[in-house]
Design goal:
- The structure is a single chain.
- This protein has 525 residues and is α/β, with parallel strands linked by helices.
- The protein has four domains: 5-279, Aldolase class I (TIM Barrel, Alpha-Beta Barrel); 296-368, no CATH class; 369-394 and 455-525, Double Stranded RNA Binding Domain (2-Layer Sandwich); 395-451, 2-Layer Sandwich (Double Stranded RNA Binding Domain).
- It has 18 helices and 16 strands.
- Strand 11 (396-406) and strand 12 (412-422) form a beta hairpin.
- It is elongated.
- The protein starts with a strand and ends with a helix.
Length: 525
């Protein structure tokens, strides 16, 4: 098989996802990240559609790119228009991109109702547009839009559009499942027919409306496609495009097709999260290969087997794609879970079976009343230390009081007063906040900051409240999950109570004590 090339269209097709808006700076950063990953082509945008893409093509030329080719995207010429006078084609030429991607109509329905022209004129539009760029020495990729739907409705005409593209000199002919409704069995059969009809290298561009984009892409490669189009994280219009974060490792690790090197493959998870961050979309934790949960184990039976052979519950080593194995603790935990999780935290319980059983019993009791340790590693570590006798509190609470006052003008004033013993010294502190939890957090920090300067680096980054038994109304038990960071690592803590302030206090204390414990280990207290 010829070498398979990766064609990324995150900056164009991916940007059509609802909620995504890339700035020029965003697009330039993503281009560099994907160059590092080893992507062969990146579709930078459609110069004729907006000034932002015009600026991108001007600025991308100054980037020190090592491998990736930048592609400009556009449509065939307008009907009954000379290519030399077609603004779309001219803008593509002026972009000075290294390659040009032209899409044209393969489905007679679109020719008649979208373009509102004749079938013969559409063939001329395809030929004229592609030959316009080939005569100027450019690499040309032809995207046969709606090809699979067109083939199923009128195979003769659909194939004729491809033959015209080949005659015009296209370097690649890419078959597009634009509506995303074709099944893998259909893609395989149709790809076989096209491969026997053309000599031009073929590509595949699949959308995910029937959850088949990755499968369609892989079977197309199996049937001879040597260019794979897709987006990072599967971003795209409607249900998205073929997800390159799944396609790439499947090609390399499952099909033995080295589209990128093994070293580049280790950058895949990083690239996925980097693009998600720029797109301002929370990474899908359950996304195959690169998701945080894709190699996370919760069931006790699974974890017990993993301690013996990793392949019992993992289809690949997560390190191959830059991901990590995680063990989470829940009411489903067994002894192996506790030992492994404790080992992750630097605590050896392998020779402490009695303490392991005590921890396991305590976890199951706490989760029964609403605690949730899967996202609360900080609270889990403190629980272990309390059971093993290694817990050392950083303060002793005497009392706290929180006041909320609603003013006549509608303003809410919140104040917390806390009384503590810090290093055997009684400390009283009062602070305001934008709510009771914030005021309590501020007061606690004020009382402790002189004794523990490292507190200034410990910041709450997320705060979630969940009502556990809503039928009890305002008397319901609530669970509070707090996420905290010191700039180097992030940890979660949990609290449960019928009183939201008490639940928040539990999670808050665990959060600060976990942070100070690790700061002390680093000599930062």
């Amino acid at each position: 098989m010829e070498q398979v090339k990766l064609y990324d269209t995150t900056l164009r097709d991916g940007a059509q996802r609802e909620g995504i808006t890339f700035t020029v700076e965003d697009k330039l950063k993503i281009t560099q990240e994907l160059d590092k990953l080893g992507i062969h082509y990146i579709e930078g945008g459609w110069p004729a559609s907006n000034p932002k893409d015009v600026e991108y093509f001007k600025r991308v030329k100054s980037l020190p790119l090592k491998k990736i080719k930048v592609v400009a995207f556009g449509s065939t010429r307008k009907k009954e228009t000379n290519p030399k006078k077609d603004e779309n084609l001219i803008s593509l030429l002026e972009s000075q991109a290294q390659a040009i991607c032209i899409f044209g109509k393969s489905w007679d329905l679109h020719v008649r109702f979208a373009l509102k022209t004749s079938l013969d004129e559409n063939l001329k539009m395809i030929y004229d547009s592609l030959s316009f760029f080939k005569k100027r020495g450019l690499e040309v990729i032809y995207d046969a839009e709606h090809f699979f739907d067109g083939y199923k409705k009128n195979s003769s005409y659909a194939l004729k559009t491809l033959k015209v593209a080949e005659e015009a000199g296209a370097d690649w002919i890419v078959l597009c499942d634009t509506n995303g409704g074709t099944l893998p069995t259909e893609v395989g059969k149709i790809m076989q027919v096209v491969r026997e009809t053309l000599v031009t290298p073929l590509g595949i561009h699949a959308h995910n409306d029937s959850e088949c984009a990755v499968a369609n892409t892989l079977i197309a490669v199996e049937k001879g496609a040597t260019q794979v189009q897709g987006t990072i994280n599967g971003y795209g219009e409607r249900c998205g495009n073929a997800n390159l974060c799944s396609v790439i490792p499947n090609l390399v690790l499952k099909m033995g097709i080295p589209v990128i090197t093994k070293e580049q493959l280790k950058l895949l998870t990083e690239a996925s999260h980097y693009v998600a961050e720029i797109a301002n979309i929370a990474p899908d934790t359950h996304q195959p290969y690169v998701g945080q949960s894709s190699f996370t184990h919760k069931g006790g039976v699974h974890i017990s087997a993993l301690t013996k052979r990793k392949e019992t519950y993992e289809h690949i080593d997560p390190a191959l794609i830059g991901n990590i194995r995680r063990i989470v603790v829940s009411e489903l935990a067994g002894k192996s879970t506790i030992v492994l999780k404790a080992k992750e935290l630097g605590i050896d319980l392998s020779k402490e079976p009695v303490k392991v059983m005590e921890i396991l019993k305590k976890i199951k009791e706490l989760e029964h009343i609403g605690y949730h340790f899967e996202a609360a590693d900080g609270s889990f570590e403190i629980l272990i230390k309390k059971v093993t006798g290694s817990y050392q509190p950083f303060f002793k609470l005497e009392s706290f009081r929180v006041l909320v006052e609603k003013m006549e003008d509608g303003r809410l004033l919140t104040e917390a007063t806390i009384k503590l013993y810090v290093n055997n010294k009684r400390v009283i502190a009062t602070a305001e906040g934008n709510g009771p939890v914030n005021a309590l957090d501020n007061a606690l920090r004020l009382a402790m900051e002189k004794a523990y300067p490292a507190l200034s680096n410990i910041q709450l980054t997320d705060y979630k409240v969940r009502v556990l038994n809503a039928k009890k109304g305002t008397a319901a038990v609530v669970r509070v999950l707090i996420e905290t960071s010191d700039g180097e690592q992030t940890w979660g803590t949990v609290g449960v109570s019928e009183n939201i302030i008490e639940a928040s206090w539990q999670a808050l204390v665990d959060s600060i004590e976990y942070g100070l414990t690790h700061a002390k280990k680093k000599g930062k207290n």
